[in-house]
Specification:
Order of helices and strands: HHHHH
Distance between the termini: 31 Å
Radius of gyration: 17 Å
CATH class: Mainly Alpha
Shape: elongated
CATH topology: Ferritin
Helix content: over 70%
Largest sheet: none
Number of domains: 1
Number of strands: 0
Number of helices: 5
Structural class: mainly alpha
CATH architecture: Up-down Bundle
Amino acid sequence: MAGFPSALNDQVAREFAASQQYIAIAVYFDSESLRQLATHFYRQSVEERNHAMMIVQYRNDYLLVRVEKEVEAPRRQFANAPEAVKLARDQEREVTSQIVALAGLAREEDDLVGEQFLHWFLAEQREEVASMSSLLAVIERARDNLLLVEEYLTHASVAAAEPTTAPPAAGGAL
């Protein structure tokens, strides 16, 4: 199997793992009765699932051989809110580097269609890193009163909707 199709298979597993990690973070916030933070991360989980399904649809459209990879188990324990959100921010930074590497691999293999497909993901990752970095900054400022973060999320547009230019997701986006 060529490098780019295989790397796409790996990315599907990483996107599903990110989705599961966001569920674990959401459950942590739910257990702390921080409903806005929980809702934010449940939405992030769905978004990551949709990203995986966009890649699945791309693979299906181009009849790429599919070899499913095992999904890494999420971390489930957090000492505090900043630790949970820092994990989310670091995860987004890692996904950004993975998408950059995928785009580079597509370019290296002269797969211009694959590279163009990843342009949306590159823009999305810039937004995701900025969003998580902002949320972490707010949480660190409000460390002693997370209800302020809850209020912030109620009034701010931190969890933006997927842009309409997103690639189609296999089975439809949730």
